[in-house]
Write a structure and sequence with these properties.
By secondary structure, the chain is of the alpha/beta class. The chain is 38% helix and 19% strand. The chain folds into 2 domains: 268 residues, Glycogen Phosphorylase B (Rossmann fold); 186 residues, Glycogen Phosphorylase B (Rossmann fold). Strand 16, helix 14 and strand 17 form a beta-alpha-beta unit. It is globular. The protein starts with a strand and ends with a helix. Bound molecules: adenosine-5'-diphosphate and alpha-D-glucopyranose (GLC).
Length: 485
């Protein structure tokens, strides 16, 4: 049994903006099921404190450099037995708006201070300076928001092992160099070998340089980020640390995403009995004022609206899809220009295109269960969870062959269809033409009902549960502990 402190800036169902929230809400529980003692540390955002239920103060910390006081509130992650610690520091986390952005969509101007504080709390617990008896064997930090954790631990004579997982290398936590002093970081860390990145202070480099072990969320992305095309300027460092970099695929939380018992969908189904899916399609069309035509191929997309996700390519492919009698349903939020372009597509094609701007967990489940196909033409995708949910829900994913999408979707070719291994459509290239060619292939297959049925069922039968991935993380923790001896 290992003792693991899992540190993240979001975890479903307390707080979620994307896939990191899904992972931090599920992996700790899967590790616990595997027999490990896991504690989850999160910022005490206002909404998270409200949703957490009964909480008890376990300790009170006074943290450098400004003697900031944080109360550690203990509860359980709802829906699990995982102990969760919320770092309650009202000045940093008690406000309206999102975890990273203010109500107008701009990054909070004190994000560096807010997340350095989280890392300080993690390090204090890890080093036994928090006034609690529990000490971890491994501290597992995730993404830039928690990446200073190993920095604050690095000089201790006795410290736990550290693991840092990159969920998205494009988000690095870059700040003005003057923050170095304000965060209480010594001048000695101001060098390109340390936290400096082209004249800015880089949080993510803290994790990448000072963790004992690194991982990312798919084997292909672990290779890609060591190349200039995907490395976001950090590929050299990642090549240098390649022997410490693992790729472990994310899993699906079956208690949240299972079409046979999902409480957020009206009609349940499984791969042996699909009709419920068609009832959900009808309901999805009705809910979104789309023509209630069972034969119109219905394509769904649930996404942060950012360039990464290839939403611009989808917008350009719309005229083609409209010629093909397809229907589209979008759920997302993000960059204003994409939100506006989607709304105008909806106005242009009433009854054929439906757009919902915002974050809506229930609507995401209804789209996964009711759509025939799911669009994910991402330019890069560290892992991606929506294509996994799509496979599980019999919603054939159409993906660009990158990162975790390449590792989880088997393209429908004559051979893979024949062998029964095909699960979706995967294409190469960053052009509208490539996407349109993939869509054309998908629509042709859709017209062949028996072939389409086989494609759906083989996707639904794939096992992407957390069990196997949690076992790999446990192996990684053991490996890092061994290598330190
Ligand atoms: P990323 O983390 O890059 O956003 P993932 O595919 O890993 O991409 O995970 C996205 C998660 O966020 C999924 O659970 C997805 O359903 C959810 N999601 C994204 N946008 C929305 C939205 N507008 N409403 C509800 N859920 C959303
Ligand atoms: C990031 C990535 C996504 C991944 C998620 C969880 O947000 O963009 O691909 O699935 O993290 O690891």
């Amino acid at each position: 049994m290992l003792r693991i402190l899992f540190v993240a800036s979001e975890a479903h169902p307390l707080i979620k903006t994307g896939g990191l929230g899904d992972v931090a809400g599920a992996l700790p529980a899967a590790l616990q099921t595997g027999g490990h003692d896991v504690r989850l540390l999160l910022p005490g955002y206002r909404g998270a404190l409200e949703r957490a239920g009964r909480l008890e103060e376990v300790t009170r910390l006074t943290l450098p450099p400004a003697a900031t006081v944080a109360r550690l509130m203990e509860g359980r992650l709802p829906g699990s037995q995982v102990p969760v610690w919320l770092a309650d520091c009202p000045a940093a986390y008690d406000r309206d708006g999102g975890p990273y952005l203010d109500p107008l969509g701009h990054p909070w101007e004190d994000n560096a201070v807010r997340f350095a504080l989280l890392a300080r709390v993690a390090a204090a617990i890890a080093l036994g300076q928090a006034g609690i008896a529990w000490r971890p064997d491994v501290v597992h930090a995730n993404d830039w928001q928690t990446a200073l954790t190993p920095v604050f631990m690095k000089d201790a004579a006795q410290r736990p092992a550290s693991v840092f997982t990159v969920h998205n290398l494009a988000y690095q936590g870059l700040f003005d160099r003057t923050l170095l002093g304000r965060l209480g970081l010594p001048e000695s860390l101001w060098s390109p070998e340390s936290l400096e990145f082209h004249g800015q202070l880089s949080f993510i480099k803290g994790g990448l340089v000072y963790s004992d072990m690194l991982s990312t969320v798919s084997p292909t992305y672990a290779r890609e980020i060591r190349t200039p095309d995907f490395g976001c300027g950090l590929d050299g460092l990642l090549r240098h640390r390649a022997d410490r970099l693992a790729g472990i695929l994310n899993g699906i939380d079956d208690s949240e995403w299972d079409p046979a018992r999902d409480p957020r969908i009206a009609h349940h189904y499984d791969c042996g009995h699909i009709p419920g899916k068609y009832a959900n399609k009808r309901a999805l069309q009705a809910e979104n004022s789309l023509e209630e035509n069972p034969r119109a191929p219905l394509l769904g997309m649930v996404s942060r609206l950012v360039r990464q996700k290839g939403i611009d390519l989808v917008l350009e492919a719309i005229p083609h899809l409209m010629q093909e009698r397809a229907q589209l349903v979008f759920l997302g939020s993000g960059e204003r220009s994409y939100e506006d372009a989607l709304r105008s597509a909806q106005r242009r094609y009433p009854g054929r295109i439906a757009v919902r701007i915002g974050f809506d967990e229930g609507a995401a489940h209804r789209i996964e269960s009711g759509a025939d196909m799911f669009l994910m033409p991402s330019r890069f995708e560290p892992c991606g969870l929506n294509q996994l949910y799509s496979l599980r829900y019999g919603t054939v994913p159409i993906v660009r062959r990158v990162g975790g999408l390449a590792d989880t979707v088997v393209d429908a070719t004559a051979a893979s269809l024949q062998a029964g291994t095909a699960t979706g459509i995967a294409f190469d290239g960053d052009s509208v033409e490539a996407l349109v060619a993939a869509l054309t292939r998908a629509l042709a297959l859709y017209a062949d009902a028996p072939a389409w049925h086989r494609l759906m069922v083989s996707g639904m039968q794939r096992d992407f549960s957390w069990r196997e991935s949690a076992r790999r993380y446990a192996d990684l923790y053991r490996e890092v502990l061994q290598r330190r001896e």
